[in-house]
Amino acid sequence: MTQDKPLTGHALVDKVKELGDLSKEEKARACGYYTQTKNGVERVNMMKFLNALIDAEGIELDSSAEGQGRGGRSASYKISVQSNGNLLIGSAYTKKMNLQPGDEFEITLGRKHIHLKQVGAPDEDEI
């Protein structure tokens, strides 16, 4: 089976989990991370596969200062509901807000939005 485009994001993570006990190379190939040379030899691109997997999991490896160098992924301000129904807010956002482990929030649901208010934080109109 030949794929038009390698899998990325949640689709990539789900496929890798689905493939279970296969080797890394077999998983990379099944997710579309391979090319064929002019001679018809198949080459698996492990670096692209592993980088895509790291990005899909939201892991930041670069620790350079903000605004300098590449610095990893930037916040896109978009998230998707995961296959298990969860919404995950990545560390790029929590770092930007200087949040710490254990910080608590009240959740208010609107028709098409979720509002988070940090417990103990002053209301915006009080600032």
From TrEMBL:
Source domain of life: Bacteria
One Pfam match: AbrB-like
GO molecular-function term, one example from the UniProt record: transcription cis-regulatory region binding
Entry-linked InterPro entries: AbrB-like (IPR027360), SpoVT-AbrB_dom (IPR007159)
Claim: DNA-binding is one of the keywords in the record: yes
Entry-linked PROSITE patterns: SPOVT_ABRB
One term under GO cellular component: protein-DNA complex
Keyword terms: DNA-binding
Keyword Flavoprotein (UniProt): no
Domain SpoVT-AbrB: 76-121
First and last residue of the signal peptide: none
Protein name per its UniProtKB record: SpoVT-AbrB domain-containing protein
Annotated organism of origin: Crocosphaera chwakensis CCY0110
